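I would like you to help me understand the sequence and structure tokens below and explain how sequence relates to structure.
___
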Amino acid sequence: MDINALFTDEGLRNFTATVRDQHVRDAQQYGQIADIVRRRLEQTPIDGDRWLSKRLRAWKVARQLKAMQKASGEAASKAEALYATYVNEVLELPQRRATAEAKRLERKNGRQAAVGAAVAGSLNRTVTALNTPQEQPTGQVPQARPAEFVAPESPFGQWPMAAGGERPTSTINDYFAKGEGQ
């Protein structure tokens, strides 16, 4: 037998099928032999036997053959399990890993897009709040002095507004200079 053939899908499939078939045939033979031995021993008396001695003796001997039948059946199923495990753990593993990596990247990109959208939305709300004049709701204490206490000749009205104050901005990008290298 070529040991390198076991490391291919077809080679291992052939090996496990051969082993499985052999164990299935053995299990059938052990079962048939157990039935024959049990029936023959039940009919063969030995001097000094009591009422159920033949049956008990036949059952004890046949029980060993039935254990052999069971072990061969389990060996046949283990041969199938060997092939299934090989396919699952060796042959299909690279494909499963590639699929898992693609899903991981897709989730990561989705999370990054969601975070980017949340940050952009937050910044837009901030800009809107900064550019919207605040009106005082009724029934609350005013935050600044009422207009009647401010003198019309206030020196604050003479000075120009800070940069960007001439027109209202609509996005956060208006607050930052556009870089040449970006």
Summary: The radius of gyration is 44 Å. DSSP finds three helices and no strands in the chain.
